[in-house]
Amino acid sequence: MNVSISTVSSRAELKTFVKFPWRLYKGSPYWVPPLLRDEMDTLSPDRNPAFEKAEARLFLAHRDGKLVGRIAGILSHAANDKYGTKNMRFGWFDTIDDYEVAKALLDAVSAYAKEKGMNRLTGPHGFSDLDPEGLLIEGFNEIATISVIYNHPYYPGLLERYGFVKEVDYVEFQALAPEGTVIPEKMLKMGEWAQKRNHFRLLKYTSIKKLRAERAQELFELLDETFEELYGTVPLTQKQKDYYISRYISFANPEYIKIAVNEANEMVGFMLAIPSLARAQQKANGRLFPFGFIPVLRALKKYDTLDFLLAGVRKSLRGKGIDLMMTIDVFRSGLAHGVHFAESNPELETNSKIQGEWKIVNRRQHKRRRIYTLDVV
User: What is the pTM of this model?
Assistant: First the structure.
């Protein structure tokens, strides 16, 4: 009954690595399958520009010839250079409910960390803050969004038994807008005051092609600035910016991309939301073709939930209501389409400013996820 660990070394093995969750979460109403193509690209050095400043080793666990787990060790040189650390990240951690399997996988990543001269493990992470991160520790009976990790309830116990402890937590909120309600008057007045006092305005785009040509690069430059101080973030290279522009912007609805500018027409804030694609991706089951694109297209046209993906405000202008202005405009767009719910996606539990905005609306905290840490000795 021994567990054997192997290293992914071929395209076929990478596909096996990527497809393991389909077996592990089969029948779960809460797990949202990622797109297989996106997962393959993210973990391929020739496709993902993050590998310019990172390296990774992927491990598979087998028992009696049966695949029972997987894990990725990620050495982010960009993160270690920024924070002055010798840290190994781990991600794509999935296992059956068996401590022997989990231990074998974590032993493999620990050995990889030691081999590279690292003295600490943290995770689950991706290559950057734009990859899914954080182990779900509360909210196992809530459907995931397309941009987060879902995991079985036994995962935290496996990591903690191995010796991992809390590094940071993220919380997630669902804002509720029951039938017949409108944007709170208090929220509207605060937004109007901020806009008039500081002479900010929101740009309106109807063409994603035009928005991408005129503002996408500026948006990701501002993203780098606004995310710089957040836990675990790393600066993006130009190739990474181009990669994420293609991934996040090219297929977005411009109605839900809010860009705030000052009197000089300089971007001072941005907010990106999308109609929820969780149920659609469950139906697509990891593939857009030949028929998976059909439920996705339907979900983009008819939806009752918005997912907030990215938002940022220039550091020197925080506290001036720019984020509130953009949130109100997203709500206006959503209400016009019959939206009743909004998902915050993960926010650091210490980010009191952004969480303060959720207090203005009817909301509930329904999920919590954790980055774990362990000293490697």
Answer: 0.93
